Amino acid sequence: MITARLRAVQGVWRAEGTPSFPIERSDIRRWAIATYWPQEPPRLFWDEAYAKQTRWNGIIAPDDFNPFAWSLPAPDRGPQLHHALPGEPGQRMLNGGVEFSFHQPMRPGDVITKRVRLEDMEEREGRFGLMLYLRLERELRNQRRELVRTRIDTVIRY
């Protein structure tokens, strides 16, 4: 199930989509209100005077903030890494789970870029026969190239 195409892209980073628009305070505030509704969100996400007194010295976004929620459609960059091309084995897919790591918080004014790579792959026998486990690593970085968030998706093809 491990094809030459998969071997060729393993470990190779590629840009995923276009950079985000600059993050606005109002984007963070609205995201926090929606996330914590009907409770009031933590003041760190909307109250500048309060946030300046914290270790962050200003408003930050919640960990789950999506700076691409308001982005324009990205141009088609061809097949996604984890999708089988016609004729390749493993046309069916299962979600094998998601892992997140949080690093630098997103702040007003940040412009976020994302990139993706096929981190690892392995074949295993399973309930449906031979199954291919793909680990996709996605990184978000701010304009200072600081790592913001890492996401690892496990995709199972069979």
Notable traits:
five-stranded antiparallel beta sheet, alpha+beta, 15% helix, 158 residues, single chain, Thiol Ester Dehydrase, Chain A, elongated
Describe the model:
The chain has 158 residues and is of the alpha+beta class. It has a domain at 4-23 and 67-82 and 90-157: Roll (Thiol Ester Dehydrase, Chain A). Helix content is 15%, strand content 32%. It contains three helices and five strands. A five-stranded antiparallel sheet has the order 1-3-4-5-2, with no helix packed on it. A hairpin with a 2-residue loop joins strand 3 (113-126) and strand 4. It is elongated, with a radius of gyration of 19 Å. The protein starts with a helix and ends with a strand. The model has no long low-confidence stretch (mean pLDDT 94).
Classify the helix fraction into a percent range: 10-25%
Quote the beta fraction: 25-35%
**3D shape:** elongated
Q: CA-to-CA gap between the ends?
A: 9 Å
State the strand order across the main sheet: 1-3-4-5-2
Task: State the low-pLDDT regions, or none.
Answer: none
Helix and strand sequence: HEHHEEEE
What's the CATH first level of the domain at 4-23 and 67-82 and 90-157?
Alpha Beta
Rg of Cα set = 19 Å
> Helix tally?
3
What profile does the largest beta sheet have?
5 strands, antiparallel
CATH architectural name of the domain at 4-23 and 67-82 and 90-157:
Roll
Structural class by helix and strand composition: alpha+beta
Tally of DSSP β-strands: 5
Mean pLDDT: 94
CATH topology of the domain at 4-23 and 67-82 and 90-157: Thiol Ester Dehydrase, Chain A
